[in-house]
Specification:
The complex is a heterodimer of chains A (112) and B (111). Chain A is an all-beta fold and 112 residues long. Chain A is globular. Chain B has 111 residues and is mainly β. In chain B, strand 6 and strand 7 form a beta hairpin. Classes of the chains: A mainly beta (112), B mainly beta (111).
Chain lengths: 112, 111
């Protein structure tokens, strides 16, 4: 069974630029999550989808972050414009049960 | 508010047993999950406790006491490859569907 795929793996941008991340979840998993993980901290949920509907986006900075999950499969997370404090690892996860989540390798973002 | 607390670092020697504690304060508690994350890697699921007691999976066991809002991960016969960060997490299905992760415990296994 293929795992969660993410791209790109690394991205370096300058502040005020925009960036997009892509995620392909495990086949059949209805729930997809985007997390932000800052070095030395636990993952923080940004947005959670159930199929193509948003279940929770209470911690998503909506003035600069947006996410979509078209057709209930792949998802993209966008940051526009990026700030220095957005430097982090962006993790995508999927699950059929919330207590057992499968994570992708993450995208390491550096904002200069 | 909702929070999980776990020690920031633990050091143990190869072959030993180590226990990583997690105390939580959440609403709508359903159970406690544990994840392992190696440096530069993604979190991987280890275990989930919905009921009080001990769940054993090979060298790893996880314990939950709902009355004490407390759980722990027990790692036996430590190996060098167990050096990683360990996160407890609470899937919260009350008032929202966020999973809240602790800050993580960094385990160093020495030879």
């Amino acid at each position: 069974e293929a795992g969660v795929a993410q791209s790109p793996r690394y991205k370096i941008i300058e502040k005020r630029q925009s960036v997009a991340f892509w995620c392909n979840p495990i086949s059949g998993h209805a729930t997809l999550y985007w997390y932000q993980q800052i070095l030395g901290q636990g993952p923080k949920l940004l947005i959670q989808f159930q199929n193509n509907g948003v279940v929770d986006d209470s911690q998503l900075p909506k003035d600069r972050f947006s996410a979509e999950r078209l057709k209930g499969v792949d998802s993209t997370l966008k940051i526009q414009p990026a700030k220095l404090e957005d430097s982090a690892v962006y993790l995508c996860a999927s699950s059929s049960r919330q207590e057992t989540q499968y994570f992708g390798p993450g995208t390491r973002l550096l904002v200069l | 508010g909702q929070s999980l607390e776990q020690p920031s670092e633990v050091t143990a020697v190869e072959g030993a047993i180590v226990q990583i504690n997690c105390t939580y304060q959440t609403s709508g508690f359903y159970g406690l999950s544990w994840y392992q994350q190696h440096d530069g890697g993604a979190p991987t699921f280890l275990s989930y406790n919905a009921l009080d007691g001990l769940e054993e999976t090979g060298r790893f066991s996880s314990f939950l006491s709902r009355s004490d809002s407390y759980g722990y991960l027990l790692l036996q016969e430590l190996q060098m490859k167990d050096s990683a960060s360990y996160f407890c997490a609470v899937p919260n299905r009350g008032g929202g569907f966020k999973t809240i992760f602790g800050a993580g415990t960094r385990l160093f296994v020495k030879a």
